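so i finally got all the pieces together for this one. its four components total, 440 residues if u count the protein bits. some of the lines might not be protein, just check the labels. i wanna see the whole assembly predicted at once instead of chain by chain like last time, that was a mess tbh
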Amino acid sequence: MQPAPDKAPRTQEERTAATRSRLIEATLDLLLSKGYAGTSTVDIAARAGLTRGALAHHFAGKDELVVEAFDKHLTMVTSDIRTYAGLVQGGSLSLSDFIDRVWIIFSGRFFMLTLEEVTAARHNDYLRVRLEKRTRVFHEHLDAIWRHFFAGTGLGALEIEVMLNATLCLLRGMGVQTVLRDDPVYFRRLLRFWKAILKEQIEGATRAASAKTPDPEPHA
Amino acid sequence: MQPAPDKAPRTQEERTAATRSRLIEATLDLLLSKGYAGTSTVDIAARAGLTRGALAHHFAGKDELVVEAFDKHLTMVTSDIRTYAGLVQGGSLSLSDFIDRVWIIFSGRFFMLTLEEVTAARHNDYLRVRLEKRTRVFHEHLDAIWRHFFAGTGLGALEIEVMLNATLCLLRGMGVQTVLRDDPVYFRRLLRFWKAILKEQIEGATRAASAKTPDPEPHA
DNA sequence: CCAGAAACATGCAAGCATGTATGTATGTAT
DNA sequence: ATACATACATACATGCTTGCATGTTTCTGG
């Protein structure tokens, strides 16, 4: 195994950052394709073009790497969802399209990674403690996004949270099913159903809200 | 390790059935407490009060055992849900209580087992092929239960399936969250929200059906 | 330009899981 | 009661993973 010709990382700091990043990416790839238990530190190092020695130098072991990886991909997804929510608020993305995009997230790489990490965490105290903490932060971010997102629909902050969290739970549950059920029609139907529900809820709340205040909107 | 004093299984057939059953139970227990990867055939045999030799005699290996175990616990859950659905139809269980009971299933042993098996199946062709097949059967049974359950609510068969499958997906997604989020209040809220939605949907459909004709078959 | 530190590689020992071969006990048919 | 099949136990060899100890290369500060 040769030193892997880096582009040209001059400073040590850059080298470190680049190497750590490569190891984390390798971890995510392998977690996805071979699962937590199926991934060894040898695999990770090899995929990153390094050896186990290098890995040991940067991370205490597999679990520390997995935590870092979890963190990274939660950050990425938070950012994606925030972007989508912004587009919806700006009017350039429909609610339906928003759901579709989030569904893509929950039926793809991201969700399968969380599935691996969550099941691993069930039997690994080190992982569980750390992933719990990061999950909490993740959900706080999401709730903030929801509140911003649906501000002014006539729904209360708590209702918004519940509704959007229910949406995520639904998509999560569907995501789990995709592993053992390859049936796009089935999933399409569920999405259509849920979109209709959401529309009803939001419209209902909007009507109710505008009926109260002297806003422009005659009631039925 | 002594021969483990069996009660008094005379015939070979009885001995075999008892031993296989013990091994399957041990597998389920360990899958739950230590996960798929964390469970070895040594563990399973020991917990069943046997040795690896006995295990090898009855099952080709861990995976065959896991498939059998999957089958067994799907059967148990199908039976539970069927019972609950029957109680609802008979009027001795409210829709709300029905949801609560199914939620207990999806936040407990059953679902965690599924989670283990599903994630293991993602990287194990032997498992995936077999679990896919059994999952299909499981869902056919569920759909049959749903149709029977909600017969005469004014909803079409497809709508019933979609609605109940959405319910299961929601609970599944919530189940996944329970691993890293210990927050009963949060889950209660989601349940309450969903129960309200279901009630709305069913009442809406019932009204629409009885408003049209005594014949229940509304078209789009 | 030359220590010293950080980054990275290599090698070895120990633990554990599995496959398989072979030995022993328990039932069952004649 | 004897012979055979089935149920179960024991033992060994192999491969894989990890921790650790020890080299070698690459950067950085004086």
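The first helix of chain A runs from residue 12 to 34.
Residues 1, 3, 12, 15-16, 19, 50-58 of chain A lie near DNA strand C (CB under 10 Å from a C1').
anyway lmk what u think
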